[in-house]
Structure formats: structure tokens, C-alpha cells
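Narrative of activities, Objective 1.

The group set out to show that a structural description can be obtained from nothing but a protein's sequence at a throughput compatible with the screening campaign. Below is one input-output pair from the validation batch, recorded exactly as produced.
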Amino acid sequence: MTATMRVYLWPPHESETIAISLPEPAKKAVMPERADLLYICDESSQTADEYLAVAGLALPKKHVDEVLKRMDEIKTAFGKTGEVKWNRASSQGGALHKAYIDLVFDLIAENKLHFHIRFSKTADYDDKLSGDRRRTDTVSKAFYQLLLHRAVGLYCSRWIVDVICDGGDCTALLPGMIGALKTHERRRYNTKLDTCIRSIKQHSSSETPLLQLLDVVLGALTSYRNGRHLVAGANATKTSLALHAFERTGWPSIDGSCANGAREIVRWNARPTIKLKAVKVATG
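Output recorded for this entry:
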């Protein structure tokens, strides 16, 4: 960029015009365009089992119609109407549920879907310290960690995320936590972009096929994590499905966690940083 200026010389009243070079004005940063992503999340085994699990499916919106079509084709092939749930896996010998499990991992292989699961050992947490809702708040906090470290941590740089969670008490507070997630995103991931979580909404699983797809894989892998397939007299169909789902992950073990930066099929066995237990104060 060039400009002109008048320079006054000696003797007085004499001058000449010269050209000078000026630095280019700073250009306003252009934010990269980000695509839309659905993050579907649900929980399993929040009572009675050794391990609780929360999980998410990361699905670009451009693939949603294709995934729903492929799910419908599976249901039609098996003459199924209505909701598909893990707790009904014994119907038809588990063939439909196996097809759902295979669909998830086939979509991952096609780079159209990612799957994340977070296990936490219930004995490591004291529900009395979680909040007034006890176990419900423990599960709610597990969801928050999943959203922060997976939905936000893995996708904030390239995606705008809409979260769909299964309805219920454990997810009831999540829509009100968008502000906290945005704050943690800026602090933890030092993002210079607008924050990535656009919405968090509860949906009924009976009316949301994608939640049903997640439910089947989540149920199978949580069953495996809790060792139900090793119990004498365990349901043979669910045992077979749990073993099949684990085999499809390609993981060497259900223990431990996948390396940082992994995003396609992520296993996370969470442990609290500090183990706290509520202390009863003796009185009298």
C-alpha cells in the first residue's frame, strides 16, 4: 500500500510531494465454516451393576438420512415394527440386534459415524457427594464429562454440535449446562472459534431411531464390561451379542482407555482424580 505526503523543505515555503510505503491494514480473521454434527447419547447400568456406562454416537447431519434408511431396511427385513431395545434382544434370536451392531461398526469403517463409551466403576463414587439427587446426579455428571471431553474435545475445531440425549431424570439438567460447557471449552481447549455446542435436547427413545441404534451397542458393550457373559446361566442370546460387539470394536481389552486423540471407536475407563467418601459424624 502506498500513500503520498507533502514534505516542507528549507528555505521556508518550499515543498515537494513524495511517495511512501505503508503496511497493509490487518485483515479481519475469517472463521472457518464448520459442518453440523449430531451427538446422540444415552446411559446403561446405572443401578445394580459394577460399571455404569454413558456413550455417544457422533454423526454428521449429512449422513442422517442414509443411516435412518439403512435402519429401516434392517427392520423391514426382520418384519419388525416399533422400538428396538437392548432389553428385548432375545427376540428373533438376536438377529435384528446383531444387524444393528454390525451397522454401527460398518458405518464407522465407512467414516460416517464415531462411537464413544465411558465406563465408571460405581464403587469409586459416593452418590451422597454428587448432589441432592444422589445416583441421578452421579450419572448426570458422567454425561457432562462425556460431552466435554468427547463431543466438545474431539469436534470443537470443525463442527457445530447438536446433542440429543435420551429423556429422563439423568439428562434433565443437561440442556441448562450449555453455558458451563462453553466456559470449559474456552478454558480447556483454548478455542478461538465460537463455541461448538449449539443445543442439547431430550428425546424419547421410542420416537428417535438413532437413540435405539445407540442403545443396542451400548447395552451389548456394557454387558461385556460387567462380565455378564461369564455368569453361569446367562442369557445365551445377549451373551453372543456382547461377545460379537466387543469383537467388532477391535479392542485388545475392555480395560484401560484408548489413546488420546482417538475418535472413531473410543473406550474410556474413567477414574475419579480424588476418591472421596461421605463421612458420618458421630453424635452423642
